Predict the 3D structure of the following.
Amino acid sequence: MGKNLFHKVFDKHTVGKLSSGQYQLFIGLHLIHEVTSPQAFSMLRQRGLKVKYPQRTFATVDHIIPTEGAERKRPLRDAMAEEMLVAIEQNTKEAGITFFDEKTGNQGVVHIIGPEMGLTQPGQTIACGDSHTSTHGAFGSLAFGIGTSQVAEILATQTMSMSKLKVRRINVTGKLRPGVYAKDVILAIINKLGVNGGVGFAYEYAGPVIAAMSMEERMTLCNMSIEGGARIGYVNPDEATYAYLKGRHFAPTGAAWDKALAYWKSIASDADAEYDDVFTIDGSALEPFVTWGITPGQSLPVTRSIPAVETFPSDERPLIKEALEYMSLEEGQPIAGVPIDVVFIGSCTNGRLSDLEEVARLIKGRKVNPKVKALVVPGSQDVQRQAEAKGLKEIFLAAGFQWREPGCSMCLAMNPDKLQGRQICASTSNRNFKGRQGSASGRTLLMSPAMAAAAAIEGKVADARAVFAMAGV
Amino acid sequence: MNEAAVISKVSGRAVPVRGNDIDTDRIIPARFLRCVVFDGLGPHSFEDDRLGLKAKGQTHAFDDARYQGASILFVNKNFGCGSSREHAPQALMRWGIKAIVGESFAEIFFGNCVSLGIPCLIADEAALGRLLAAAEKEPQAQWSVDIEAGKVTGPVNESAALPAGPRSQFLSGRWNSLNELLTNLAGVETVAAALPYVAGW
């Protein structure tokens, strides 16, 4: 039996076995941001430790940064946000770590800038104090979120303690129909396997649907692995991966490119690789998905109605009832037609150029429903520049969307972008937890950018395939 | 063995928080992550859940006077899912929690708890049902979580275990792995030199 990518990459990065039975794992790329790193630098200072490999850590600011131009002037109006920004400026400067702030023109959501700068490559181990680090698995790397104590471990030693995971191969067969996207695929997988179905597993996504996906779509897919409980999700590298990387700032060139290509090909799962579990889902049968509850697993195709409480296993029913009450939705209610107050297009899940291009293509010449506040937040300054160069900004503004500066924004609302009161938001982000978007009673429906665009136009949840007359419905 | 850091038993009163899939946004809402130190997070544990219940005339266990000073938390399934924020176990720890017993835990949350010296023991659904009910019925009861024996004792006695690795970390006092990682920096350099992308192709 051959080896899968997880074991190949894990073994190459193993320094040794620890007394706990866990492994000391070398981390090839460490990404940091302003929220989960300041305490780690303090821990190092308290112990008199230095950053071991400053050139292997890269920093940006994304969570707390305002997305309205005037609000980004320093010092930031929010004194606490300013203190966090100052802390990461000073910590990176002291340690000699590259910090992609706004002045560099490379600022953005940490999981968007890593890939777009070519930092994220196949066969790496990648860690960041952020659970959506699984995004980088799209390139065939082992990428996972960590806590602040582990950020400190990596800063001090470039290693952390880690157990080997089991590997579940998820085959997505067939071909996606028009109007069905990577976001729908991952929401469907989480719905089927559950929000804790992936605990203890790395997910290897494969099959014809995955092979046909662009790198940006694969990032959307891997991004939400953690919402299914899997700390790691990855796709084996292929020609699409190499084509994406070629020419990017940190990608190897010349003779180094050929060596890199050989390494990248060597770490892909063998054709006869062994898996701890295999799950298959028919991509041809998928429809656009929408969440209706307070976990990313509480979802359904847009054509359906919210299932009756009694159709769920008895131990899940309290949470189902809690979700319905919180969302003010009822069992048996069709999800299409639920009124929407706010539309958020952005985040590390769906804030990339192709996401914005698709929405712009669909809404061109249409108008946002007057009762809806609609935001487009590009994932990075690079995404913003490219989108503006392609004329997308004008299309969004003409339709009534707000066009913002890059950041995490209303995905978790640590900056000024927040829901108010019980507002309900059609969001392209990754979490619909209670209070996630900045109001303790605010409500979130997760969906694809196209579905969010349809919600913006209609002012309610609507099937994007019908709203935009996509072929094949 | 680091004797000073050995954690083999946690004793005290227990606070019950029912519900599956309680995520780290609920344990500590994102607005409290606007900080550069973890101090001060404790009182904000479950803040929005607590306010939500208060608005309905109900009381969250963390607001209930009878549970103040508790050091053991009983929970259901997939506790701590979602964000990797260490702020969540930091907040619980600063509130006073020293051990958690649940049906299952999200992976990153579990690891963060290990780093902080908070054992998260796993018991089956029926056992948790009895533990939660007992803690609700007798808030003043004294409990003991025995990591070595894999037992929770109090008004009811139940088996609750840690996976072998973390169990040995707590029992040997090596739950904070930084010291051990630092002892092998030569090995780190050897691995780094052998990785083509680190060595510079």
